[in-house]
Amino acid sequence: MANSMQPKIWFDATTVIKLRGHLPVGLSRLEANALRSAMELLEDRVRYCCFNRYEKRQVEVPRSVVQSLLDSYGNLGNNPRREATHGARSRSKGWLKGLARQAEKYSRTTGRRLAGSLRQSICHRSKNRPFAIGDTLVVSGASWDSIDADTLKELVDRYQIRLVTTIADMIPILYPHHFQNQQTVDSFRRYAAVSASHASLVVSILDLDKSPAMRLVA
């Protein structure tokens, strides 16, 4: 009974769910590794969630679903014929890699509605937020492109959630011209601002205290 009253640690799985079936990329690897580490923690203290952008809130994801996503992460299927033609595949590695990147880019830009439907089918629907006062929410992937920044602020301000965020770099702010639309840049700016003002801990490979871009959003 005492354990049920202890604060929970919630690991966000929005990026892994969003990029399910895609080639692994840096930001999804960060989240996948965090989720794998979470699986090794005490099961009664750890929960999983994702952001439902249609309802603009975090919803719980069953542990079994997260485990299934991790088991299939980066696995695009085994093809015996492909193994038999390893030499030819190696010679055309550059071309295949370029083709895969193009396919991934196409999927990202045209499959948003399908991805949203998938997230809705994976995530539990609940009238109440899954968090309790004193819980911790860990956001470790590229969820800044999906999670509503105001939702994170509300969780901290109204529900006293301890927020842990990840900022791998400041590229969207330093080099906004590399992104196809301004909305992505604005989403990152809002996420970075919430991290600076509301997060209990910000994980980064950068020295954020010395980052001119971080001072801009703060």
What do these coordinates show?
The protein has 12 helices and 6 strands. With 218 residues, the protein is α/β, with parallel strands linked by helices. The chain has one domain (2-74, 111-217): 3-Layer(aba) Sandwich (Rossmann fold), CATH 3.40.50. Strand 4 (136-139), helix 9 (149-159) and strand 5 form a beta-alpha-beta unit. Helix 9 (149-159) packs parallel to helix 11. It is globular, with a radius of gyration of 19 Å. The N and C termini lie far apart (41 Å). Residues 77-93 and 124-128 have low confidence and may be disordered.
Proportion in helices: 40-55%
User: What would you call the structural class?
Assistant: alpha/beta
Measured by DSSP, the beta-strand proportion falls in 5-15%
* DSSP, total strands: 6
**How confident is the prediction overall: mean pLDDT?**
75
**Total helical segments:** 12
Largest sheet: 6 strands, mixed
Number of domains: 1
* pLDDT < 50 runs, ≥5 residues: 77-93, 124-128
In order across it, which strands form the biggest sheet?
A: 3-2-1-4-5-6
Radius of gyration, whole Å: 19 Å
Shape: globular
Q: In angstroms, what separates the terminal alpha carbons?
A: 41 Å
What's a quick, concise take on this entry?
The protein has 218 residues and is α/β, with parallel strands linked by helices. 50% of the residues lie in helices and 12% in strands.
Core attributes:
single chain; 218 residues; Rossmann fold; 6-stranded mixed sheet; 12 helices; 6 strands
Task: List strands and helices in order, with pairings.
Layout: H1 2-5, E1 9-12, H2 14-18, H3 26-39, E2 46-52, E3 57-60, H4 63-71, H5 80-84, H6 86-91, H7 93-110, H8 112-122, E4 136-139, H9 149-159, E5 162-166, H10 171-174, H11 182-198, E6 201-203, H12 212-217
Parallel strand pairs: 1-2, 1-4, 4-5, 5-6
Antiparallel strand pairs: 2-3
Helix pairs in contact: 9-11
